[in-house]
Structure formats: C-alpha cells, structure tokens
Amino acid sequence: MSNAVVLLSGGIDSSTTLAHAKSLGYDVYALSVNYGQRHRVELDRAAEIAKSLGAKDHRIVRIDLLAIGGSALTDSIDVPVDRTASEMAAAIPVTYVPARNTILLGIALGYAETVGAFDIFIGANSLDYAGYPDCRPAFLDAFAALANLATKAGVEGKGRFQVHAPLIRLTKAEIIREGLRLNVDFSRTVTCYDADQHGHACGRCDACQLRRAGFADANVPDPTSYRTSAKSGNS
C-alpha cells in the first residue's frame, strides 16, 4: 500500500479529498497548517476528521502568514458578507491569501519526502466564484514539475511526485454527494471564514453562502451550526 499526503483544512473539500484518497487504498498522512487564519477552529475539526476517516497520522504545522498580511483571513481586513453570486465572480476576493497554496504544498512536499510518499492530495476547486489563482490546474501541474526537480527523492529517481486534485472541476453539490458516499461527517467540518471558537458559522461570508447553496443543490440537509445572527436562506 502506498503512502499519500493530504492537505487537510477541516472543510468540506479537503475532508472529502482525504476520504477519496483513503478509498483509493492509500495510507494517508494528513497535514494541516496553522498559518494565522482567523478561523483557527478548523484545525480542531481537522484533527477530528483525520481520526474519524482513519488517517495514519495527522500533523499540524505552524507558520506565520499574518506577518505578511494582505488577506481578510490573516489581516485586519473585513471578511466580505452578503455578496451576490455575480459579485463573488467579479474578481479574486480579499479572502485570497497570498501564495498560500504554494507554501502549503511546499510543506506537504517536505512531509511527503519524510514519509516516502510521492502522491500529494489537495482539495483545490476551480469553480468557486472567480477561482483562486493557486487552485487552478496549470498551477498544480507546475508545482508537480517543480517537486520532481527540487527534491532529493525526485532527482535520485526514487519516484515521481504527483499532485492530485480530485475535486478540481466538481460543483459544491457534487463534492457533498461524493463526501456522503465516502462517509464524511460534514457536521464536523468548518467552512466559514469567520467561524467563532466553537465552530459556529456566520452564514454570510462567501464560503458560507457557497456551502449553504451546495447542500441545497444536493438536496441534502445542511448540518452546519450557524450563529443566531446568521442570515437565513440563500442569497
């Protein structure tokens, strides 16, 4: 059985990706990163999810992206709320964290070398609003090429690194259906960009609206715990 490293944020997409990797027969090494995100409760949930889905190991690595700022997830910038679908699609949002996936994949690559894995899984999805630049297939392909040039294991020909993004072209509803098929407990997951310390979601940020719409489109009850002040219904 081969080893794989899965980047696990504690949200819908990464949790489904972990379950997918397990279903393919990999021994999964889950990796979460505390990068200074305001919704740090997702890391607690990631630990629960890794355990419930049978990850062989789960590491949490700490880095400080707050030091460079530039994102509503790490800096003193308001998280956008109550935006329409057209507003979300108009441009890359302020919740984009500069170079985040490049950094996270770099850490995952280092972890992969230490556990003898050549397969790295990420829950990237290119259909959410404008699509973050570091969630696109061209970027992931480029990173895989870099991985094979920049590592001892790659240069010595011990294997060929691959970056897998099995959800890249799925809608949120399709991801939810696949996660349920693979027994992901979505009540444990945190998607909200401004979740409180207990994991209660705001119901108003872009991530909450996409999550709520995904469950509605999948015709599946939404197990999310929203704060009492959250706006009801889809916008």
Question: Top keywords for this entry?
Answer:
5 strands; disordered C terminus; 235 residues; five-stranded parallel β-sheet; 8 helices; alpha/beta; Rossmann fold
Task: Describe this structure as you would to a colleague.
- With 235 residues, the protein is α/β, with parallel strands linked by helices.
- It has helices spanning 12-23, 41-52, 85-89, 100-115, 137-150, 152-155, 172-181, 206-217; strands at residues 3-7, 27-34, 57-62, 119-121, 162-164.
- It has one domain: Rossmann fold (3-Layer(aba) Sandwich), CATH 3.40.50.620.
- The protein is built from eight helices and five strands, in the order E-H-E-H-E-H-H-E-H-H-E-H-H.
- The longest helix has 16 residues, at 100-115.
- It is globular, with a radius of gyration of 17 Å.
